[in-house]
Amino acid sequence: MGQLEDLQLSHSFLELGNDFSSRVVPVPLRNAYLIHGNEHVAETIGLDPEAFQHPTFVGCFNGEQAHPRFAPLSMVYSGHQFGSYVPQLGDGRAMLLGEVKNKAGHWDLVTKGAGPTPYSRFADGRAVLRSSIREYLCSAAMSGLGIPSSQALCLIGSEEPVRRESVETGALIVRVAQSHVRFGSFEYFSHTNQHEALKALIDYTIQRNFPEHQASEQAIEGFFMSVVQRTALLMAQWQAVGFTHGVMNTDNMSIIGDTFDYGPFGFMDSFLPHYIPNHSDHGGRYAFDQQPGIGLWNCRALAYALKPVLADEAANGILNQFESIYHEEYLRLMARKLGITGTEKSIPELLNPLFSMMTVDEVDYHRFFRFLSDPQSGRAQATALFRNKSGIEAWFTLYDNARPEALCPAEERSRDMKAVNPKYVLRSYLAETAIRKAEDDHDHSVISELMTVLESPFDEHPTFERYAAEPPEWSRQIELSCSS
Ligand code: AMP
Ligand code: MG
After folding, report:
1. Whole domain around residue 86: which residue ranges?
2. Which residues does residue 106 pair with via DSSP β-bridges, in sequence order?
3. CB atoms within 10 A of CB 114
4. Which terminus in the chain has less CB density within 10 A, N or C?
5. Which is nearest to 421 in space by CA: 471, 460, 379?
């Protein structure tokens, strides 16, 4: 474990050449200060968590102090936004500083909000505190839930005024991920007919993130199969945990299957199939129940981009497997949430009536499954969530029949269910509470308390019971937009 200055950084993306990125220079935020550092992420990249306190830590990421091994660049990409192709996007406010390589893999260090880049168009290259807090918390929440995600090493605040609907302050997060290459990166080179560059990017990605296919004669097919598989599995995890990304444009789709580019995302409170956290998504293209279909749509867009090097027949054969991979995984995850093993046929028969009742009665998705995990008082608490008592009681009869008591001791089953049904979820109102405290009172205690519970969301954390409470009435009024 070392200090920031000791990190051995490499620059493989830079070495791909000028067609792939532009060198950039960060513009420091005024009076930047550390709000929070994630010790687990520090350890992942071989950084001593004490490095957060080092006098030059913030300055290095903020561009005030030169770091001998940082070589900031912004990546070029394009992508489909809300179904329409946009020929050029690129990192408008993200800068890749370098890459750490260790036993666990390659880790990109990227700042988000450090100033404009050649891809900023008319925007300012900044990220406001509110959206940075949300990304910071959600990166940790996803890892706590065991869902692939980009990570955030630290959250930095400042006194830099940043104009959105009103004047806010600028912030910065340092994002850590095994790749920042997006579906849209391939689309860019394909749609501009830069086929050599497209091939180089594919080789680079296979070598760096999919080495298992490197030696194969069908490396590109294998690579595409893995991307489709990871995407389908990720969709199943989002659906099982009640997460909606909000902006599943192809430029926000990580090629390695991470949850990536957090904007107007949301965990649903009460179960709502057509939940739309992004207030700007009028048509509901990226609603909760649309995500698996959009995941496949995005894989098709990627297949289209890979056309110069991947035959239609092979691509279609792979795309055709998306649905069954998704479905099998979703049912497996839901069976675990229900505490049912080995009888997957009955899962849809249990879920369909349950979800209908939950929707009508606006039953909290997470509280229901957590209560269900408790062999003692849980059933009464779960029942209390419904207005239609006879309906849920009839459902419990179905449930009990699908789940013979004798198979496994109640205690053991409860433990297994609690290990997949989180007690703590990053509900929008909790993120909003952390934001209000930070913006209004300069108080970051809620951020740090939420980090504690979200990093191990299946544990009890008795001192923080309040973060597992029923959402307050005002949480229904929260509206999120793409403005960040
Ligand atoms: P997003 O919706 O965050 O995925 O952003 C879409 C595109 O707009 C990406 O290319 C971003 O880098 C860019 N972008 C968003 N906000 C800003 C900003 N404040 N400054 C510069 N570029 C931005
Ligand atoms: Mg984006």
Report:
1. 4-177
2. 101
3. 30
4. N
5. 460
User: Is there an atom of ligand 1 within 6 Å of 91 CB?
Assistant: yes
Q: Which of 196, 140, 210, 16 is nearest to 449 (CA)?
A: 140
Cα separation, 304 vs 312, whole angstroms: 8
DSSP string, 217-269: TTHHHHHHHHHHHHHHHHHHHHHHHTEE-S---GGG-BTT--B---SS-EE-S
Residue type, 136: Y
Report the alpha-carbon distance of residue 464 to residue 449 in Å, rounded.
8
**Do residues 176 and 151 touch, judged by C-beta distance below 8 A?**
yes
Q: Considering its fold, how many domains does the chain have in total?
A: 2
* pLDDT tens digits for range 209-232: 999 999 999 999 999 999 999 999
Q: Over the chain, what is the mean pLDDT? A: 96
Predicted TM-score of the model (pTM): 0.97
Q: Is residue 271 in a domain?
A: no
Which of 178, 225, 139, 134 has its CA nearest to residue 439? 134
- Which of 368, 459, 473 is CA-nearest to residue 429? 473
Which residues neighbour 130 within 8 Å (Cβ) at sequence distance 6 or greater? Answer: 168, 435, 439, 484
As a whole-number percent, the residues of the chain with pLDDT over 90 amount to 92
Residue 250 lies in a domain: no
Which of 29, 75, 120 to mutate to test ligand 1, by most ligand atoms within 8 A of the CB atom?
120
Amino acid at position 70, single letter = F
CA of 20 to the centre of ligand 1 (A): 18
Active site residue 251: yes
Query: pLDDT tens for residues 295-351?
Result: 999 999 999 999 999 999 999 999 999 999 999 999 999 999 999 986 666 899 999
How open is the CA angle 23-26-28, to the nearest 5 degrees? Answer: 170
155 Ramachandran zone, left/alpha/beta (phi>0; psi -120 to 50): beta
d(CA 87, CA 133): 30
167 within some domain: yes
Contact by Cβ (8 Å): 243, 265: yes
Ligand 1 atom, smallest distance to 90 CA: 10
Question: Which of 367, 389, 407 is the last residue in one of the domains?
Answer: 407
Residue 54's contacts (CB-CB under 8 Å, 6 or more residues apart) are 3, 4
What gap in Å lies between CA 277 and CA 263, rounded to an integer?
A: 10
pLDDT the model gives residue 28: 98
